[in-house]
Every structure is written in C-alpha cells, then in structure tokens.
Amino acid sequence: MIHPHFDSTNPQKSAPIGIFDSGVGGLSVYRHLAELMPKERYVYYADTQNLPYGNKSGDEILFLTLQAVDWLCRQGCKLIVIACNSASAYSLTTLRTRCRIPIVGLVPAVKPACEMSQTRQIALLATQATLQGQLLAQVIHEVATSKGVTVHKHFEPMLVPWVESGMPIDHHVADLLIKQTQAWYQQGVDVIVLGCTHYPFFRQFLQDWIDEQQISMTLLDSGAAIAQRVKSLLECFGISADGEVLDEPLKFYASSLAGDVPATARRLSQVPISFVDSDFLPIDV
C-alpha cells in the first residue's frame, strides 16, 4: 500500500498536486492544470533516467511508475496525475488499488474523436506502448469498433526527440508528420488524436498546415479534459486550494538532469521552474 504523507502543519487543501511523466511531455498537461486551477501548488516528477517508456515492457513501466508515485506521495501530494499515456496504460488499475489518494490517468481522446467524426475515420498518433496496451484496446472496442468507426493507429519514434529539440520546421520529422497527415486525409480521416503528452506541443504547427491547406481535420488531446477531471475530484473531496492565486515556481524533480533536460523543461513549460533533488531540496541548474 502506498500511503500519503501529509504534514500536520500543512493542511490537506494546500497540499500539492503531483504530476508524473517519463519525461517533460507531461508539462503540456501541467499547463492545462495551472490555467484552470491557478491557486494550486504542483510538484512534477520526470523519470528522465529511464525514458522513453514507449518501448518498455508493461511490467517495467508498472515498476517505474510505482516508484515515482511513491516519491510523490512522500512529498505530501493530495492527488496525482499520471501525465503519461504509456504509464497510464499499464499502471492505473494497480495504482488505484494501492494508493489512498485520487489517481488520474491519461487515455487518448478516442471517445470524443469518435463522437466528433463525420467520416467515421479517425487517426491515433501515440507511442508503441500505448498502442499495444490493453486499456486502449478496450476503449477502441467499446467506443469505435462497436460503432463502426475505424481507428488508424500510428507510431513515429522520432516525434518526441523532435519536440524536445525545439521542433525545427526544416527538420525531416516535420516533413514526416505532414506526409502522414496528408495520407490520413486521403483515407478520409477527419479527426486526429494526439495520444502522447509531447504531441500537443506541435499542435499549433500541424494546425497551421491544416489551415493553409484548407482541409477539414480536427486535432484532439486529453489535456483540458484531464484538468477538468482533477478539478471535479478536488471539489468532490473538499480539498481544493483556498486563498490567492499562487505566484511560485513549479517544483520539478528529474531522475536525471543530464543533457538539455532543464532547458527543455523551461522552454516547454514557459513558467518559472525550481529544480529539486530526490530529498526535495533546491538545486541550481
């Protein structure tokens, strides 16, 4: 059993919300959370030492996710968001039986995509682990296949590195993304689901191309829906933060700060970040 660690001097309402991802992609979810709930405090855990999760086995993903959630619980988090589709696919059931605080996970936005599609053809762009997970297979069967909607699944391993490198538009990955979108359009796809938390960062790039081509395609991700779910859970349990809008940096822990992790996190989050070590002590990077 993973237990919460609330400090008696820190009332539950002011306890932070934990966010976990294998890397910095979950910052796209954080931005939705912070926009909707600016009075809340947030602690972000990035397991950068073990990324990417998308090509790991389900057992390995579960083990790493349990470690991360245990660390977030020890920081006194009142709710934890698994801001990683791959980790959600293999850990949600176990986490919800072991944790005594609310756990919110990510599932690609297949259901709203199916409801929105006029052509009954949708595309799902996600990691290999997400696409192979039983959770997604169940969702697709219930909301797509059984209703006659075709889901075109696709994995492009270079998308995450491209996002983290700043998404240069003259890069060959940008060309790959455009070509794949063109192929989907020719197949009748009218909704594209961005099924990895890194992908919303290139949403504007892709939307600009769609607008230039004057074609009818909609891009969907789960960020806004996850933020609404967190808000409703906090209200349901009576643990929403009181007081003024907070003006403090995001607390960010990474299992490895090698390479460009700090710079990438700052660029993608577009907010002040305070990096901390495994003991939650500030570090200067």
Automatic annotation (TrEMBL):
Residues holding substrate: D21, S22, Y53, G54, N85, S86, T197, H198
E.C. designation(s): 5.1.1.3
Pathway(s) where this gene product acts: Cell wall biogenesis; peptidoglycan biosynthesis
Gene Ontology BP term (one): cell wall organization
Signal peptide: none
GO molecular function: glutamate racemase activity
Catalysed reactions listed for this entry: L-glutamate = D-glutamate
Catalytic residues (UniProt): C84 (proton donor/acceptor), C196 (proton donor/acceptor)
Keywords: Cell shape, Cell wall biogenesis/degradation, Isomerase, Peptidoglycan synthesis
Enzyme class: isomerase
Family: Belongs to the aspartate/glutamate racemases family.
HAMAP family, per database record: Glu_racemase
Function summary: Provides the (R)-glutamate required for cell wall biosynthesis.
Protein name (database record): Glutamate racemase
The species this protein was found in: Moraxella catarrhalis
Gene: murI
